[in-house]
Amino acid sequence: MRRLLPRFDLQARLDQAQSYAEWLAAAEALDEAEGLLEWRQTDGSAFFHERLIRDHIRRMRTLRQSGDLEALAALLQESVYRHLGELNNPELYLYARSGTKHVVTEYLDEVECVMRTLCEQTIPGMSEARKLALFEQAALIYGRPALMLSGGAAFGIYHLGVVKALWEQRLLPQTLAGSSMGAIVAAAVCNRSDAELDDLFAESQDRIHRIALRWRTPVGMWKHRTAMDETQVFEHIVANAGSATFLDAYRHSGRILNISVSPTRTRQKPRVLNYLTSPDVLVEYAAQASCAVPGLFPPVALQARRADGRQMPYMSTETWIDGTVHGDLPRERLARLHNVNQTIVSQANPHVIPFITHRKQRGIQAVGKRVVSSFIHTGTAELLDIGRQLLEKTPLNPVLAQAHAVAAQTYLGDINIQYPFRPSAYLKVISNPTPQGLADYIRAGERATWPQMAMIRDLTRISRVFPECIAVIRERMRPRVVDARMD
């Protein structure tokens, strides 16, 4: 029996890990020292029907080994939709650091094995075209995950670390959404191919453009009615994300970019821009609009690129501001547009993170914090709503309306990765990072993601297998070219 290090030393190893592999090794050792590996090894749980899951594992394995593919397909469909809600319960991932019950992993292993068996083998009485249609329908019903990057000013740089951690484990969703600083990071990721992303994260971070903010002089502030120079943030966006339409970015990377923008006109609606809703809109202008915090930057008029390469205004009479005002996390629109069923939220908004630090805690103190946070959130939204109604016909109404929109939003998803709350960090929230500061933000994003990795891997696993199976079936359906040349 191997000797266990003291818990203090194991915790230090966990906190000082420089990679996910190091972190996971330390997490498993700490779980073992605290007896949590035994919890993982037992099947009993209040959150799922363990005996039924064991029975389904056994039945799927038996049918797969016997070759009864028709019955196997029926059992798979029943089992996946029966246990979907149970196994998606985040409570299963609040105990051990290194993962949840082993039976959950065993079940997902068998489901994946069954899916690959069904897509690779011929099912009696079922054509490949019919099989493809069934897999595509099942994928549509099941849905897909999305990574949503909040605003956060300088804190939002940490989104790069979140993306890096997910990318290195090949868990980065195809669909990304961003607002404000999150829009810049999402644009930079979705306008790079896989090889270009590998290069971005493997090479020196000196290649990342850091200077997004430039304060105006007092005279400039008075003249432009904004505190910062919008040309500097635009230069920052183009340097990091390039220039492309949403459709061009999708074709180049295969990733679906979504950027939230908020209207300046009362009767206009907030938008989620992507290759479906606005294929010809230029990403750099959308990201700039999503960063246009009222008072700091002026509103932005979107631009589009025509098929002949000419640039032209998009919705020329409208201007747009910070996407966090009305749609920091546009979950409903992503579900409708892209069939998103699982949201991974990277949250760095300065006005949000102090109120969500208790989400990973357990016990009476955590419950008390949640109650207080809920009262503050609800009460602030109600007061702002009353204020905007009372002052409807005054110059203060637009300001109160924007403040109410910010306060009334939901800032969490199914899986949440949050920037660590440190009061001292707020001194740098509206400033450009130093080279060391950039590295620190990225490492903070990685560290915040590692504890969520097991849950992300498990909860998105089936949705990640569907595209691979569909690709296999389509390959099997391709007509084989026979060399019929005569001698």
From TrEMBL:
Domain PNPLA: start-end pairs: 147-335
Any Pfam family the entry gives: Patatin
Catalytic center residues: 180, 322
Motif residue range(s): GXSXG: 178-182
Keywords: Hydrolase, Lipid degradation, Lipid metabolism
Superkingdom of origin: Bacteria
Database matches in SUPFAM superfamilies: FabD/lysophospholipase-like
Listed transmembrane segments: none
Stretches of the chain forming a coiled coil according to its record: none
Any one GO MF annotation of this record: triacylglycerol lipase activity
BP terms from Gene Ontology: lipid catabolic process
Protein name: NTE family protein
The organism of origin for this protein: Fluviicoccus keumensis
